[in-house]
Design brief:
19 strands; Uridine Diphospho-n-acetylenolpyruvylglucosamine Reductase, domain 3; Alpha-Beta Plaits; 5-stranded antiparallel beta sheet; globular; 11 helices; alpha+beta; 390 residues; single chain
């Protein structure tokens, strides 16, 4: 690894001194740089190629999850760029360093939104959410970022600005390269901006919680909620001490009667926001699992007896989030996921543990390696962040 003194000198050859800072706690790099324009990012990438330096792209750094160490963290949060919003076309192009909450607030003034609701804090950026392909309850109805993104702009492994997609909803020409960058965690280039297809902001939201006595009862309630002739935004299934189903519906309070007649009478209602009222326990370990929907019941049943486990699922999609305290649980959960034909990602673990990110390899990992070798031929972008050779 290049010495800090030499690295700083090299950085000052392409960046202004005020754009360079020593990396802070939680950022796995020697330096964090905050380029003020796109040209500086291009020059930085060319420097990295010439000197064999490694880069980890970031927004605020709140979503970096890597056991590796890199030379330079590259933040897009200081880029001097503005959001472009076309309310009539329901499309917005947003710089990746923009805080997600800031972008949503601006769109809300036009009664529009990005149909994503991942867990965020005030500093979480558009780029971080797209790069991790993070999602929340709205995945039930709208899918992930891959279903909402129309176009991207990146700096590639040669230090060139490359655009993919088009800033229109109806675009079917060519390969959809945008999907390569979503969830790549910065391993294929540095995202500069993202164009989203927008959706109307519901005037009213009804959130109902149904408490159930068994897994079978909870799955039946969730299935019934999903098929209601209403604008069902999400259906969540949770298990901490008891099973609960949370249904979020866009509509007036009159929709409550339909739910009560079709699903259950004992519904607890909340209409203050579109967020689920369910609180999820945060453990030492935090994993995401994707399970074939035909095997979801088997998987949920197998893990429901584990001690000190908090479970959250979108049953209509077949995805789960689990948090727990014991490393032994991780091994047992991994076995349950594998026997169900799914795969899982370890998102959080103690610093002194080094379980691989993918305890069960997702399909297409070999293709991901081939794609990286083409788009990042010099191996400068976040090497290893997605796994070996990735």
């Amino acid at each position: 690894m290049t010495s800090p003194e030499k690295l700083q000198s090299r950085l000052e050859s392409v960046l202004n001194s005020e754009e360079i800072q020593s990396a802070t706690s939680g950022i796995p790099a020697q330096f964090t740089v905050y380029p003020e324009n796109r040209q500086h990012i291009c020059e930085l990438v060319k420097l990295a190629v010439a000197d064999g330096l490694t880069l980890i792209p970031m927004g605020s750094g709140s979503r970096i999850n890597s056991a590796g160490e890199f030379d330079i963290a590259v933040s897009t949060s200081k880029l001097n760029e503005q959001m472009e919003h076309s309310p009539a076309d329901m499309v917005a192009t947003i710089p990746t360093g923009t805080a997600f909450t800031t972008a949503q607030s601006a769109l809300r003034k036009h009664h529009q939104r990005i149909a994503l609701d991942p867990p965020v804090n005030d500093s979480s950026t558009i780029g971080g959410i797209v790069s991790t392909n993070d999602w929340g309850t709205l995945r039930h109805r709208y899918g992930t970022a891959k279903n909402s993104i129309l176009a991207t702009t990146i700096v590639n492994g040669d230090g060139k600005i490359v655009k993919a997609g088009a800033k229109v909803v109806k675009n079917v020409s060519g390969y959809d390269l945008n999907k390569l960058y979503i969830g790549a965690r910065g391993s294929l280039g540095i995202l500069l901006d993202v164009t989203f297809r927008l959706h109307p902001l519901p005037e009213q939201i009804q959130t109902g919680i149904i408490r159930c006595d068994s897994l079978d009862e909870a799955l039946l309630a969730a299935s019934t909620c999903s098929r209601l002739p209403l604008n069902v935004e999400s259906v969540e299934l949770t298990k901490s001490s008891d099973w609960e189903v949370t249904a979020t519906i866009a509509g007036s309070s009159e929709t409550r009667k339909i739910v009560e007649e079709s699903v259950a009478e004992n519904v607890s209602w909340n209409s203050e926001s579109g967020k689920s009222t369910t609180k999820h326990k945060v453990g030492i370990y935090y994993v995401k699992a994707s399970i074939p929907k035909s095997k979801l019941k088997l998987f949920l049943k197998s893990v429901s007896y584990f001690d000190s486990l908090s479970l959250w699922s979108l049953p209509n999609v077949g995805v789960c989030r689990l948090s727990f305290e014991d490393a032994v649980q991780l091994t047992r959960i991994s076995a349950s996921v594998e026997s169900s034909g799914g795969f899982m990602e370890v998102e959080q673990q103690p610093a002194n543990f080094h379980f691989p990110r993918w305890l069960i390899t997702p399909p297409g990992l070999e293709w991901m390696r081939r794609i990286k070798s083409v788009l990042d031929p010099h191996g400068i972008f976040a090497p290893g962040i997605l796994g070996e050779d990735l």
